[in-house]
Amino acid sequence: MTSEKQASEKRGISGLLFVGFLMVGLAIGFLTGNIVAGVFGGLGVGFIAMAIAMAFEKQEPKNKGMSGMVFVGFLMLGFVVGFLTGNVPAGLFIGLGVGFIAMAIMRYATGVW
């Protein structure tokens, strides 16, 4: 198997993880009656899982955009907290704060944004 084909397969895995978590979040939203929270939760976990999968790519630039995906993931999870508690601004600030912290950790760990 060529290295180009292997890299293509790994990128496909990260996309599948994203879509899979989105669908699971949507299903949980239907089951709980809170579709918006389910979708945002699926998006948040999907972005974080996608970034983690990208961390294991072997080709360069393997980590490009990872910290941004982690930030967006935590921002979506902050929206979920806001919707579930009935206080969306607080959830947004929680998502922003944790997102920036996670973004800094990813920058420190990988050396790229």
Q: Would you kindly provide a written description of the structure presented here, covering whatever features stand out?
A:
The two termini are 30 Å apart. This protein is mainly alpha-helical. The protein has helices spanning 3-32, 35-55, 66-85, 88-110. The chain is flat, with a radius of gyration of 15 Å. The chain is built from four helices and no strands.
The average pLDDT value, as a whole number, equals 85
Major pleated sheet: none
SSE order, as H and E?
A: HHHH
- Beta content comes to under 5%
* Poorly predicted residue ranges: none
> If helices are DSSP runs of H or I spanning 4 or more residues, what is the number of helices?
4
Using only CA atoms, what is the Rg? 15 Å
Morphology call? flat
What is the terminal separation in angstroms?
30 Å
Number of strands: 0
Question: Keyphrases for this structure?
Answer:
mainly alpha; flat
List the topology elements:
Elements: H1 3-32, H2 35-55, H3 66-85, H4 88-110
Helix pairs in contact: 1-2, 2-3, 3-4
Short note summarizing the structure:
The chain is mostly helical and 113 residues long. It has helices at residues 3-32, 35-55, 66-85, 88-110.
